[in-house]
Specification:
alpha+beta; 14 strands; 7-stranded mixed sheet; Phosphoribosyl-aminoimidazole Synthetase, Chain A, domain 2; 29% helix; 60s Ribosomal Protein L30, Chain: A
């Protein structure tokens, strides 16, 4: 059976103008990249479609470079704020490439009338998060737009990291038989944002998982030779990240839903809001693809870090249905997990 027989008709939607779905991290985001950006500046680094680009710097040194933008609403949310999120999100894009974060630039788009005291608090969050990650803020810019045009502020960042000489992580390194690991429960960030917007209260409360991954990823890089590839499943959740990897490597990812960690309050919030935890954004979780004989070592490393204490093996890679993500459900049946389509969770990062 061809994979085209299983494609979702909604995912083929096209538009002559930008919609909110283009920023959701799903199929339309990928289509926008391919049709507009890659077509106009198709550098090899960009076409690799990694979270960071890898640049040869000297005969012995390589750099990882990434750019990100943050438009989350509200600016302060349970477990974090846009300042911390901008640092951790950038650090994590470098981390999953196997890089050690070195330097950061920040550009602030400020709305006329935004209180300077609030800006100072957010700038303080950036400084604290950067110090925590041992990354230096080395340059920046500010622009001001008219009242009502920026919901307070937006932040754009560029991160620079240093790669170990032997690191070469990519989807093309993934092999049939490899295993899929997750560092902890999924959906925390997106559901913390959506629950606050919807006025939903939970006990214990829902908190964003926003956190830096670099210490955990660097230990994996140093100690696990069979580490194939890593991703931080942000917009579009693990559904988007796994589909991107399956397409890139041409293999099938089979995920065991019984092994996929989801907090009870996240599950409840998803049911109330009609959402699937698979598509909900995370801001402090790691997907890692490793060789089968190094699963236990990898899990031991994940679980030695507080942010990875609930790490688990959630699936395997095989070549039965190439380019697909398949979930083995709690009932023992199988379902296709498509690339997310449509407007999922607007303005959550």
């Amino acid at each position: 059976m061809s994979t085209g027989d299983w494609s979702c008709p909604v995912a083929n939607h096209s538009s002559d103008t930008i919609t909110m779905s283009h920023g959701a991290g799903g199929r339309l985001s990928a289509q926008l990249f391919d049709d507009v950006f890659a077509r106009n500046y198709p550098s090899p680094e960009l076409m690799a479609k990694g979270d960071s680009a890898v640049l040869d710097w000297t005969a012995h040194d390589r750099l990882a470079v990434c750019t990100d933008a943050f438009v989350v609403q509200p600016l302060v949310f349970p477990g974090g704020d846009i300042g911390k999120l901008s640092v951790y999100g950038t650090v994590n894009d470098l981390a999953v490439q196997g890089a050690e974060p070195v330097a950061l630039t920040t550009a602030w788009i400020l709305e006329e009338g935004f209180p300077i005291a609030e800006l100072a608090k957010l700038a303080g969050s950036v400084g604290q998060a950067a110090a925590e990650c041992s990354i230096r803020v080395v340059a920046g810019d500010t622009k001001v737009v008219e009242r009502g045009r920026a919901h307070g502020c937006y932040i754009a960042t560029t991160g620079i990291g240093r790669l170990r000489p032997s690191v070469n992580l990519s989807p093309q390194a993934i092999r049939s038989g490899d295993c899929v690991l997750i560092s902890g429960p999924i959906g925390d960030h997106g559901m913390a944002i959506m629950s606050q917007r919807s006025g939903l209260l939970f006990d214990p409360p829902l908190l964003s998982d926003t956190a830096p991954l670099h210490r955990m990823t660097l230990e994996l890089v140093d100690k696990v030779p069979g580490l194939r590839c890593m991703r931080d499943p942000t917009r579009g959740g693990i559904a988007a990240s796994l589909n991107e990897l399956a397409t890139a490597c041409g293999l099938c990812f089979e995920i065991q839903e019984a092994s996929l960690p989801v907090r009870p309050q996240v599950h409840s919030a998803c049911e109330l809001l009609g959402l699937d935890p698979w598509i909900v954004a995370n801001e402090g979780k790691l997907l890692a693809i490793v060789a089968p004989d190094e699963v236990e070592l990898s899990l031991e490393i994940l679980r030695s870090h507080s942010i990875g204490s609930l790490g688990a093996k959630i699936g395997t890679v095989h070549d039965l249905y190439k380019g697909l993500v398949i979930a083995r459900t709690l009932y023992g049946t199988h379902r296709i997990v498509p690339m997310p389509a449509g407007e999922l969770l607007p303005r959550i990062c």
